[in-house]
Amino acid sequence: MTPGLGFALWVNGSPAYDETSFPTGTPYVFPRKNSNGSDAEYKYHTSDGSWTGQKVALERGNDINNEPAWTANANLNNYKDSRYRFIFENNQDISIKTFSTSIKDEKTMIVGNPFMSHLDFGQFYLDNQTAIYNYYRIWNGTQFYTFRGDVGNSGFEGLDGLTTLTGNDESVNQYIAPLQAFFIDTKPNAVTIKFTPESSVMHKESKLRSGQSENAILRLHLKSGNNTSQAIVALIPEASGGYNPEEDVVKLFSPYKNIPEIYTVAEQQAIEINTVNASDEKQWIPIGIRTSYTGDMELNISGTESISNSIDIFLKDISKATEYNLRDIRSFNFEKTTENDLEGRFYLSLKNNSTTSINNQASQTKAIDIFVREGKITINSLEDRITNIRLFDISGKIYYQLKNSGKYTESFVPTTISGIFILQVETENQTENHKIIL
């Protein structure tokens, strides 16, 4: 049916409703008029079907005194301005108008497709690109899933149409269903968004990504029982590195802590779709798992075949001090033994093995990762064993010190202090200083 047009339901007459004088095929209009000219009354019923005892006659528009309006051959257009006009509307202008709605800037907001047709998110973004980022999320009742549009850069084509839906589900795509609610992230200084006729489409031809892509895409798939979750790492030569809201999608977590959800970390942000610079010589990408669930889990990493052979890809398990070559092994089973979130155990290691002789000099890439959560400091050495740790302020006063650790990971909770501090970590082969805020 065409969006914006109504329809009439044709029914046979029924003695129970005082319609015996109306021939079969009479248009069923609403509000109705009895055959004696009085207004039909309508009863209110509860959800179980019982009558509440209330009834009312609905009136709208002018009375029709010309009974031929009730015949099957009546010219209904003559009565479009009568009490029945909301069915027989003036059909001279049924066009969809552009309308706007107010939003708050730098927020995650729920909005809805207002059309009785699909909303083309690509056009919706073009209409609002100064106000929103080029992705949206859908809530399925247990967790959020993301659709990523084209970021508008010729080097980012591989991100167009990415979705974190698992399996063969294609319900989250460029076309948002009629009246469907969805979540957007707004940009700084955003005031309004608008819905235009151009964004309302009559059909739904999903523009899903093909199996081929100019960019390398890694998919991190977490499975626990019947629950699944997915995060994406995209290797883009033009990516800015770190966290960039124009390129990356922050993870929006389910309120249900028992649902296992996987993500990566960039600049202390939990990221669902993470773009990393493929030209970096070496980088470590932390993997996080948020859930109170304890028990067996399975981690699968796919897409390594789309990445150039000049890049070595490993999964490092800090707890076991073990690296796995993802060219050979892509599925891992492990047990989560505590209800705490799992962060700082697994890392993706990406190393460019085709660098020049100049780049083959000592790497400047940091090989020590620091997490600060609720006052607890966790240190992971991704290559060498930790030897010494010192925490001091900018005046040089030491607040914590550990010597001769010999481990790959250490954690501690400093005394009740706050401010900016320097965390110095020595390993078997190097020393790194990290600025942290407590």
Supply Rg. 31 Å
The number of distinct β-strands equals: 32
Low-confidence region ranges: 1-22, 60-74, 78-94, 207-214, 355-364
Helix content: under 10%
**Backbone structural class:** mainly beta
Tally of helical runs: 1
Cα-to-Cα separation, first versus last residue: 60 Å
The averaged pLDDT comes out at 77
Overall morphology: elongated
- Strand residues, percent: 35-45%
The description of the largest β-sheet is: 11 strands, mixed
Question: Could you characterize the architecture of this molecule?
Answer:
The protein is mainly β and 438 residues long. The protein is elongated. The protein has 1 helix and 32 strands. The relative contact order is 0.08. Residues 1-22, 60-74, 78-94, 207-214 and 355-364 have low confidence and may be disordered. Strands 15, 16, 17, 18, 19, 20, 21, 22, 23, 24 and 25 form an 11-stranded mixed beta sheet that branches. Strands 29-28-31-32 form a 4-stranded antiparallel beta sheet, with no helix packed on it. Strand 22 (311-317) and strand 23 (322-325) form a beta hairpin.
Features:
32 strands; mainly beta; 2% helix; eleven-stranded mixed sheet; 438 residues; four-stranded antiparallel sheet
Brief summary of the model shown:
With 438 residues, the protein is mainly beta. It has one helix and 32 strands. A hairpin with a 2-residue loop joins strand 26 and strand 27.
What's the arrangement of secondary structure elements?
Elements: E1 9-10, E2 27-28, E3 41-45, E4 51-57, E5 99-102, E6 108-112, E7 118-120, H1 121-127, E8 135-139, E9 144-148, E10 162-163, E11 175-176, E12 181-185, E13 192-195, E14 200-201, E15 216-224, E16 227-236, E17 249-250, E18 261-266, E19 269-277, E20 282-290, E21 295-302, E22 311-317, E23 322-325, E24 331-336, E25 342-352, E26 368-373, E27 376-381, E28 386-392, E29 398-402, E30 409-412, E31 420-427, E32 431-437
Parallel strand pairs: 16-19
Antiparallel strand pairs: 1-2, 3-4, 5-13, 6-12, 7-11, 7-14, 8-9, 9-10, 15-16, 15-21, 17-19, 18-19, 18-20, 20-25, 21-24, 22-23, 22-25, 26-27, 27-30, 28-29, 28-31, 31-32
